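Order emerges. For instance:

***
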Amino acid sequence: MASQDTWLVVGLGNPGPDYARTRHNIGQMVIDELADRFGTRLSAHKAGAAVGTAHVRPGGPKLLLAKPASYMNVSGRPVGALARFFSVDPAHLIVIHDELDIPFDALKLKIGGSEGGHNGLKSISQVLGTKDYLRVRVGVGRPPGRQPAADYVLKPFSAAERELLPLHLDRAADAVQALAEGTLEQAQQRFHPAPAR
């Protein structure tokens, strides 16, 4: 049995160098940020993912950082296998993913609800049999003009976005820590943008 202080933190993306720095892989970039922050090395796991262990602080929550080795659309297979292997309940699963409906410099946190057309989330919900897991929705913004969303997310960030990307990743990593150490509501108050006045 996993401790109630154990969290499975999964960053979604596609495998291989061709996808590594694309918008669709921002979830995996956040995992890399967390791994760097904690000095964690990710190693291949039989569940079909690279996995490493970190502690938010000495004696604090344990994070199982994971990057599925599968393609985005079948993310549910490795996520389900990891949850079973480590005995992690869906309520202690945090999935980090790209979000078209949020501006590039923002993020939102939620549990459950619609997957918003995100095939990685749909796969996870189907395999787990529930939508009730935490999500860190990292904004990548909408494509300009008439560019198809599917093409947009598979392209690298613009030069202007690349300048801000380290701050964006750092903030998303902070949000993961906040979820592991507190409540969803507390994290939302901290990381959601204030309403426009």
In short: The chain has one domain: 6-191. Residues 159-181 form the longest helix (23 residues).
